[in-house]
Amino acid sequence: xxxxxxQWDLPDYTHVYSGKVRDLYESKDGRLLFxxxxxxxxxxxxxxxxxxxxxxxxxxxxxxxxxxxEDIVPHHIISTNVPQSVAGRATFCERLEMLPVECVARGxxxxxxxNDYRASGSICGVGLPPGxxxxxxxxxxxxxxxxxxxxxxxxxxxxxxxxxxxxxxEEAQQLRRLTLSVYETAARMAAARGIILADTKFEFGIGIxxxxxxxxVLADEVLTPxxxxxxxxxxxxxxxxxxxxxKQYVRDWLLSPESGWDKNSGEAPPALPDDVIEKTRERYxxxxxxxxxxKFQ
Length: 297
Prior knowledge:
With 297 residues, this protein is of the alpha+beta class. It contains 6 helices and 16 strands.
């Protein structure tokens, strides 16, 4: 596992934490600096390769979405006026008490949800009709939460009752409502751009001070190719894996004979070939440009 926050020139900041992709720092005046690296993860491993400009793309896309969703739920962004060494890939963010739940919304059947459905006919205790295929549209979007694993561990799908047991009924119901509301709004916006938002995950926290004190706040990244499955609407066809704008391309290469890697071996994945890195970057850029209508610079 490779996590190297020392790459940033931030002598006046204290390193607080590093996740698979992001690094968190604190300024001398107590502000939190949230930096998106070019690292990429798959199957709970941080790969020994980076995707050029990935952190800048994720940050730009998150900011675009946050500004369009703030009528539904407040977000944690305070400022983008950050040190030059991390300009374009960092934001100053509100300090929150993070809730220990990965809030996943699914409108289509794919990924771990597909595996659960094939095994039990349900996802996170939500029963689904028989006969659905890989890529099928669900009768309606569903809330399928997961535990928030520590770095290197695997998130585990859980039932809504388990979320209630973890954080209480009122906050669990609020997270479900907000997750589905944000998903449905974003899915409509994406559809207008020719993109299917198959599923996505959100993280929320409780405001500690200031105007959002005591409120549920949307945090981390939002609706990026790292946290979502984006499919081109024009090629959608249930019954098989869909072409995508997200990092599924990396997962597919790792699982192919070409990589020589056994997912179940316990060994770290290999470095990505140059062509896989280039094509993955192209997919991230394409997602940003098609969704926002802006040219990535």
